[in-house]
Amino acid sequence: MKTPVFKEIKRAYGFDEVAIVPGEVTINPELARTELILGNHSFSVPILAAAMDAVVDPLFAVNYSRQGGLAVLNMEGLWTRYDNPAEILNTIVKASREEVTSLLQKFYTEPIKERLIGERVQAVKKAGGICAVSMIPQNTKKFWPLASEAGMDILVVQSTVTTAKHKSKSYKGLVFADLCEEVKKPVIVGNCVSYNVALELMESGVSGILVGVGPGAACTTREVLGIGVPQVTSTMDCAAAREEYLRRTGKYVNIITDGGIRNGGDLCKAVASGADAVMLGSIFAQAQEAPGKGFHWGMATYHSSLPRGTRIKVGVKGTLEQILFGPTSVTDGTQNLMGALRTAMGVCGAYTIRDMQKAQMVIAPAIKTEGKLYQLTQSM
Predict the structure, then answer these.
(1) Is 36-327 a domain of CATH 3.60.150.10?
(2) Confidence class of residue 167 from pLDDT cuts 50, 70 and 90?
(3) Which of 227, 260, 364, 379 qualifies as a cystine partner to 231, CB 3.0-4.6 A?
């Protein structure tokens, strides 16, 4: 007798299990165009810097804006809780592994000072940067007008898992359709990993969707909650929702793969999976300009009873310019990310990001180990 099946399980794939197939026609990398369009803003670097305190402060946001990218400033982090968080950051960096999580929980219990929201946005705008800000859904209604009045350009509403429908006894759920109508500026929401949720979020009028639950280097959601979908599959599913929404409405919504990207190869695979852009945390935390001084911690680390992030040491590897454009002296793909993307696009014959999304991919679990015996043994 055949055993009944309780539920079907879909096979899902991460970056290490797939590879991009070269195109039948190749082009010179300098012919590849990599623009990301959000509302009236165009970015030559389709990489967002994550709204994490160890990655983005107002100065980093300005520097990155000058490089052609978009950095997202956390409006519920240290920069809006403390007038001068330098001493707090220094304490976090110097803390032992045993004490750092409790310290983070302590530091993030300091109430948010609403006046600092406007001051941080103004600091970016006065220096000529494009300012994107991040808030959790529970606080968005209260905080977004303060950021908007100060000159905010792009709003990011972000939580571990975001859906278009949320029920709560403690607060009235955020209606994204109403929010987009009120803000009248590009709104990015996240994070999600599935076709139906992505499609419902698109129908609310958002400009972009962050894809990824638990893949971040400093995130422990998958360990603590067991929740998540590998990034290649989640990106492809959400990209399929984008194509269906585009077919129905003629409106294009950007898919932004958020988390799990360790090098240029992962970046290229994310785009080939359907991403219009990616969001990076740990790689940018390695920049000399990053406020974390070679350390990185997740946004949920400070949860009072169930922290789902941890501080990790990533080291200071180079300047922001080196990470983005080189020159690089490392061979692990963590620098000159834009050079890697343009080269991969050239190999695939892709003139645009949309062309690159059409690149053929294969399931290839041996892609990182095949023929690499010496590299593997000599790196240990």
Answers:
(1) no
(2) low
(3) 260
- DSSP letters, 106-160, are HHTTSPP-HHHHHHHHHHHHHTT---EEEE-HHHHHHHHHHHHHHT--EEEEE-S
130 pLDDT higher than 60: yes
The set of residues, in sequence order, having a beta carbon less than 8 Å from that of 106 and lying 6+ positions away, is none
254 vs 4 pLDDT, higher one: 254
Structure tokens at 71: 């950095």
Q: In this predicted model, what pLDDT tens digit does every residue of 179-232 receive, in sequence order?
A: 999 999 999 998 899 999 999 999 999 999 999 987 877 776 777 788 889 999
For the chain, domain boundaries: 36-327
How far apart are the C-alpha atoms of 311 and 300, rounded to whole Å?
Answer: 11
Closest Cα to residue 234, out of 279, 201, 274, 265?
A: 274
CA distance 326 to 318: 9
Q: Please give the torsion angle defined by the CA atoms of residues 55, 183, 149 and 84, in that order, rounded to the nearest 10 degrees.
A: -20
**Cβ atoms within 10 Å of 6's Cβ, excluding its own:** 6
